[in-house]
Design a protein that fits this description.
about 290 residues; six-stranded mixed β-sheet; Uracil-DNA Glycosylase, subunit E
Length: about 290
């Protein structure tokens, strides 16, 4: 029986296709016999435990002596009444549950124990924040990617490197900002979060904003901008503009929308639009002496 050779280009295209649907990591080091049907326990036993120490070390080396702001060990707070997996929960119920949250530590603890979002079941870990909690500029992206899911830190992969360059182009770095994502868990295959997931996590994002109390929020990408501004207008029409929004602080918060770095990686020609946005942002920062 002759072995049919598969063209190299076909194999490469298949690999890219698997990456697009989220099959971008090997589960086991050795090939598996798919004729053998495994039970759930046997399957889970084959998955090695994730080791993030090397990735975290690499990330710190890239940032030099500038260490990310770290949060203290989360305090014990009463969250036993949070919903269990599969139970539907409304935004109003989430808001009520968050009334007892008064610090970033408690908010992180609340998200870690929150079981109302199915994304938690497919992600490696919670991706909470990076940067300076006392910063006046708060950057809110969309959702973690593969590298962020591994390390538990937002914007550390290619998108993070581009974001650092974008900030540097106007003379600031991430330690002068506070960075988070609208969705704290990686969606399977990096898919766009659903409207249900966005609505479910909106109270957590709003509480996050209230705890940071920023002068300006930079909304990266359509998911973040549309959710924060409660609109369906496309990001290409929202970008480069400041809009005030009541997010539960003493005064309305200025929200500045621009293109997400991941979009710019796919469409490099649009970087000129993002740079124009950053110039507008810098001018506003100078006016406010930020």
């Amino acid at each position: 029986m002759s072995v049919q050779k598969t063209p190299k280009n076909h194999l490469i295209s298949q690999l890219f296709w698997q990456m697009e649907i989220g099959a971008d990591e090997a589960i086991t080091e050795n090939p598996m016999n798919f004729d053998t049907i495994l039970g759930v326990r046997e399957y889970l036993a084959l998955i090695p435990k994730q080791d993030n120490k090397n990735l975290e070390s690499d990330h710190k080396k890239q940032k030099g002596n500038s260490e990310p702001a770290t949060l203290a060990e989360p305090q014990n707070i009463a969250l036993s009444h949070l919903p269990h997996p599969g139970k539907n929960i409304s935004s109003q119920e989430s808001s009520q549950l968050l009334q007892a949250v008064n610090s970033l530590d408690q908010l992180k603890k609340a998200l870690q124990e929150f079981e109302g979002c199915s994304l938690k079941n497919t992600a490696s870990q919670l991706v909470f924040s990076d940067g300076n909690p006392n910063a006046k500029i708060m950057i809110i992206g969309e959702a973690p990617g593969r590298d962020e899911d591994r390390m538990g830190i937002p914007f550390v992969g290619q998108t993070g490197q581009l974001l650092d360059k974008m900030l540097k182009s106007i003379g600031i770095d991430r330690q002068q900002t506070y960075i988070t994502n609208f969705i704290p868990w990686r969606p399977p295959g990096n898919r766009t979060p659903t409207q249900e997931e966005i609505s479910l996590l909106m109270p957590f994002v709003q509480k996050h904003i209230q705890l940071i109390s920023p002068e300006i929020i930079v909304a990266l990408g359509g998911v973040s901008a549309k959710a924060l501004l409660d609109t369906q207008i496309s990001i290409l029409k929202l970008r480069g503009k400041f809009e005030n929004k009541d997010l539960g602080l003493k005064s309305p918060t200025s929200i500045f929308s621009t293109l997400h770095p991941s979009y710019l990686l796919r469409a490099p020609a649009q970087k000129k639009l993002a740079f124009a946005d950053l110039v507008t942002l810098k001018r506003e920062m100078m006016v406010r002496s930020l």
